[in-house]
C-alpha cells in the first residue's frame, strides 16, 4: 500500500512538473538551506559584481539579467553546471540577489492584502494576519516569484520561459522594469503585468526531465526572436487546455487599479487611467467656482487648492508632461466635481497607484 502511495505521489509530481508547474520538494528546501548556511558572496551576486561578463567565464546554463535601469545593458548570467540538475534551480540561485535591507511600505501591504483577501480562494480571510515585521523578514532573506512568459508544450519542445523577480518588489517601492513589461507584451499579455526592480529571465525544459536550459542574451532577448513570436499562440493554447482540465470557460487578466473604466478610490479623490493619461476627480458638496481653483504641477508633483484651502498635495508615482495637464469643473447626478487630467511622461506604462 505504501509503495502504491509513493508511486502515485511521484507520478503526480512528474505530471505537474511536465506542465511547468513549480513544485518545491523537501529535498529542494534542504538544498536551499545548505546553500544559505555556507555564507560568503552568493555566486549570482559575484557574477553581477564583475565589471565585464568576460572577467571570468563560468561554465553552465545561461540566463539573462534585466536591470530596471534601461541605461544598463541586459547581461548574461550562468547557473554553474554543478548547481544544475533535476528541477528548476534558478529560484534558489537568484534568491540572494533579492535579499536586502529595504523595508516594505506598510500602507501598500495593507492595500494589497485587502485586495487579495476580497476575492478568489483567499476571500474571507483576515488580512491583518499578515504583519509588516513578517514581510520585512521575507525581504531581508530574499524571496523569488516566478512569472511564465510562455508555458511549455509540444510546439516549443516543452521549454517554458520565465521571469524571476523580487516577490515583494512592489511593497519595497522598487522602480518599474519597463523592459520586462515590454517582453510580456510581446508574449501576448494585455495589459502587460507590472514588474518591479531588476529581474532575471530563464528557460526551463520539462521533458524528458525538468531542468534549466540556455536562454541566450541577444538571440533570445531580441523582440523578433522565434520563441517570442510564437509565445502568443502557445499561451492561448495552454490556457485553453487548462480551461478544459479545470472545467472553466476562460480566464481574463484582471484590470489594474484605475483601468478598464473602473475608478479607484483614495483619500480625498478617485482616479482612473489609460495608457496615456491619469484622471483625478475631487468631489465637492457645492458647485465648483473655477475662480477659486488653483492647480499647480511639476514633472512629479501635483498641488491643488480651492479658495486657499489645500485639497491635494501629491508626490506622483511617475513623471508627467506638465504641458499636457488640464482641469475642468462640472456637475452630474453623482454631485459636483473638479477633474484634473495629466499626461504620462511614459506612454503605455500602467501606474499601480497615483502617489510615489
Q: How is the biggest beta sheet arranged?
A: 6 strands, antiparallel
Share in β-strands: 25-35%
What is the first-to-last residue Cα distance?
58 Å
Mean pLDDT: 79
- Overall, the morphology is elongated
Residue ranges: pLDDT <50 for 5 or more in a row?
30-39, 113-125
- Total strands: the figure is 14
Order of helices and strands: HHHEEHHHEEHEEHEEEEEEEE
Helix coverage percent of residues? 25-40%
Question: Briefly, what is this?
Answer:
With 356 residues, the chain is an alpha+beta fold. The chain has helices at residues 2-18, 26-37, 43-49, 90-94, 106-116, 132-141, 178-186, 226-246, and strands spanning 60-66, 75-80, 144-150, 159-166, 199-205, 211-213, 264-266, 269-273, 277-284, 293-298, 301-306, 309-315, 320-332, 335-344.
Commentary on this structure:
- The protein has 356 residues and is of the alpha+beta class.
- It is 26% helix and 27% strand.
- It is built from 8 helices and 14 strands.
- The strands form 3 sheets. Strands 1, 2, 3, 4, 5 and 6 form a 6-stranded antiparallel β-sheet that branches. Strands 7-8-9-14-13 form a 5-stranded antiparallel β-sheet, with no helix packed on it.
- Strand 5 and strand 6 form a beta hairpin.
- The longest helix has 21 residues.
- It is elongated, with a radius of gyration of 24 Å.
- About 6% of the residues have low confidence.
Amino acid at each position: 500500500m505504501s509503495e502504491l502511495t509513493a508511486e502515485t505521489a511521484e507520478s503526480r509530481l512528474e505530471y505537474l512538473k511536465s506542465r511547468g508547474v513549480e513544485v518545491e520538494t523537501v529535498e529542494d528546501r534542504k538544498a536551499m538551506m545548505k546553500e544559505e548556511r555556507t555564507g560568503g558572496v552568493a555566486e549570482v551576486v559575484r557574477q553581477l559584481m564583475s565589471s565585464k561578463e568576460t572577467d571570468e567565464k563560468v561554465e553552465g546554463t545561461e540566463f539573462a539579467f534585466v536591470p530596471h535601469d534601461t541605461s544598463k545593458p541586459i547581461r548574461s548570467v550562468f547557473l554553474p553546471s554543478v548547481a544544475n540538475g533535476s528541477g528548476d534551480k534558478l529560484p534558489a540561485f537568484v534568491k540572494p540577489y533579492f535579499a536586502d535591507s529595504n523595508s516594505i511600505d506598510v500602507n501598500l501591504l495593507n492595500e494589497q492584502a485587502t485586495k487579495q483577501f476580497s476575492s478568489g480562494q483567499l476571500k474571507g480571510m483576515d488580512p491583518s494576519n499578515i504583519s509588516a515585521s513578517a514581510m520585512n523578514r521575507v525581504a531581508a532573506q530574499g524571496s523569488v516569484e516566478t512569472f511564465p512568459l510562455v508555458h511549455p508544450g509540444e510546439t516549443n519542445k516543452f521549454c517554458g520561459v520565465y521571469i524571476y523577480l523580487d516577490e515583494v518588489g512592489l511593497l519595497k517601492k522598487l522602480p518599474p522594469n519597463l523592459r520586462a513589461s515590454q517582453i510580456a507584451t510581446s508574449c501576448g499579455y494585455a495589459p502587460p503585468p507590472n514588474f518591479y526592480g531588476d529581474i532575471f529571465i530563464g528557460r526551463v525544459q520539462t521533458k524528458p526531465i525538468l531542468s534549466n536550459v540556455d536562454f541566450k542574451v541577444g538571440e533570445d532577448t531580441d523582440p523578433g526572436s522565434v520563441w517570442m513570436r510564437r509565445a502568443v499562440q502557445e499561451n492561448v493554447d495552454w490556457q485553453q487546455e487548462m480551461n478544459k482540465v479545470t472545467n472553466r470557460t476562460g480566464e481574463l487578466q484582471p484590470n489594474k487599479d484605475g483601468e478598464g473604466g473602473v475608478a479607484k478610490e483614495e483619500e480625498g479623490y478617485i482616479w482612473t487611467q489609460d495608457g496615456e493619461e491619469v484622471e483625478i476627480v475631487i468631489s465637492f458638496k457645492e458647485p465648483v467656482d473655477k475662480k477659486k481653483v488653483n492647480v499647480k504641477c511639476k514633472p512629479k508633483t501635483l498641488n491643488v487648492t480651492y479658495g486657499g484651502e489645500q485639497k491635494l498635495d501629491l508626490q506622483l508615482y511617475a513623471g508627467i508632461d506638465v504641458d499636457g495637464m488640464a482641469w475642468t469643473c462640472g456637475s452630474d447626478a453623482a454631485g459636483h466635481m473638479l477633474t484634473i487630467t495629466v499626461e504620462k511622461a511614459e506612454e503605455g506604462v500602467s501606474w499601480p497607484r497615483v502617489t510615489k
